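protien #1 (seq + structre)
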Amino acid sequence: MHLDFVPVWTVILGVGVFMYVLLDGFDLGVGILFPFAADEDARSLMMNSVAPIWDGNETWLILGGMGLLAAFPVAFAIVIPAVYFPILLMLLGLMFRGVAFEFRSRDPAHRPWWNRAFFGGSLVATFSQGVVLGMFVQGFTVTGRAFTGTSFDWLAPFPLVTGAGLVAGYVLLGSAWLVMKTEGALQTWARRCATLALVAMLAFIAVVSIWTPLLHEEIAARWFTWPNLAWFAFVPVLTALIAWAIWRSLRSSSDYVPFVGAMGLFAMSYLGLGISVFPYIVPYRLTLWDAAAVPSAQAFLLIGTLFLLPIIFMYLGWAYYVFRGKVSADVGYH
């Protein structure tokens, strides 16, 4: 009798991807907002707010990619060729913004160029992640257990719309982060940005929520047949309540509710995605069990993963604890 490690790996990958979206999402959002700040002092404060923790956030991206390869190799072999170019663009964007972090402070003569690199890298990385998400929901061209589409299947309306939607979502996370971490004029500006981003994100959520069931009958049946309609009604209801709480908090003196609420919106969107596609890991061809590695390989890899996960959580928790509170202009990158 073999133990079933697929549920364990599903939880690990699900948590890893969600943590990446939340944690790297807000610092990518700060990067997208970067060129629209009032002046260089404001931009320096924005960079200081994410400088101590941005690279640690990307730990979850590595965990997600390597976990997919190790635990679900068939899915990795299908998904990666299908989204090769968006992933390439995402990695290039992350590289550009990482270099900009270092050189903006050390090369003042070319600071405008590094500002553009920070913005462009953040925008390209975010849009590319949204395209990958859109391709995942749209589905892949698969014959047997192999991808048989082209590397340009992502150039389709639905993935491009989800790419734009993720940009709006990350801007909401980034601006809510700035509301929490800054004061004065920069915080006031961030509240305005968060309000606009909230409206844009809700619009994209509505469009994608209507469009997704039209793409696949399986998704429509999952959401709109009885008793599922009653079981899953809490998702849109909670989404609306969270959006209302964010809206109210942005018009009050609350510094923390906008960011917590933005994370809540992403949690509801992530949960909705999971409800739509479960149990598929290659929608709508292969289930998690169809694409899984052999149990012995999953068990071997699980030993190291369960050892590393607490270390990652402790390291990130300590980093966020040490750098808690409002950001100041005299600490970090300048």
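ok now protien #2
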Amino acid sequence: MSEQTQFDDRPWLDPEAEPFIQVSGVTKRFGTFTAVDNVDLQIYQGELFCMLGGSGCGKTTLLRMLAGFDNPTSGSIYIDGADMTDVPPYERPVNMMFQSYALFPHMTVEQNVAYGLKRDGVDKQEILQRVEEMLKMVELSQFAKRKPHQLSGGQRQRVALARALVKRPKALLLDEPLGALDKRLRAQTQYELMNIQDQLGVTFVVVTHDQEEAMILSTRIAVMDAGKFAQIGTPTEIYESPETRFVANFIGSANMFEGRITEDSADHVVVRSSDPACEFYIDHGVSIKEGSKVWVAVRPEKIRVSVSAPENAAANQLSGTVRDVGYLGNTSTYRVQVADGQIVEVTHPNQSRPRGGKHAVDWDDVVHLSWEPSSAVVLTE
């Protein structure tokens, strides 16, 4: 495999790759409130990049600055090598799709899609051709003569997407694009959005508060908190190797065990928990001094649960009592209270039907928990 081929799907790892969108030291203040706080960001051509965070974290403000609707208080924004920091929205090579879709109710589907091209003075015949191509791509050709109120939520979303893409922007900015859809339709539309982006090769920058949506859609995710990026990485990196407790808890859920480093080597760490009888062994180093306070994070699905006691005492073992059971069909969730009073959440796949309606693990059972050294992550903050 050539070095170039190696970086084709991960250009952010290529030291010679030029970012398509570059944000440098951008800050945005509204009076005394800092919405975006001195952030740096590089997004590469063809990425489907998600900015993820809770309400008020600054993600939409940053998206609006990329679109040109807000200007940074300080810092610079480059798109395709050109300084766009003070360039108005209509002169930027990007388009924005809003959460509300903002369709014109008195226009048909094809009129809505054609609107931007008409405003730009594009030739009539070219408009017809481009609108036809775009409606075919989003599978709405048969609805061309309908008006927005005659469409489902998912169909209106695709009309808005077609209208944004028909102008052939170099990047499309999407603000909570699936937020108005119900859960089932949102799941279906996520894959449609990915397929359209893949066909066109346009850079997508998506703002969302939905962790699952970001994990499914994106090549990379930027987790945002209080105007800063807490971590930027692929969905796998963010989930499996969170860098802070905030990220570990924001993406999915994690059990946090507080303790002190008793041994730190290049290939493993030993942590003594607040329970003197419990020790954690993790198969990666953290390069901090012994005695430092840390947290051991373990995802619920990484933990094994058994009503049988282990044959030998070892690290990464806990015992406790089941206080709650949540049956979700394909999985069950157990909330287990361990010796020091902490509640540990465990997710277990239901791979076989329960006999006589009784589950293998039930309320008030004493159970034993364990996990592999590779399943935990040591966090210092």
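The CA atoms of residues 109 and 159 lie 7 Å apart.
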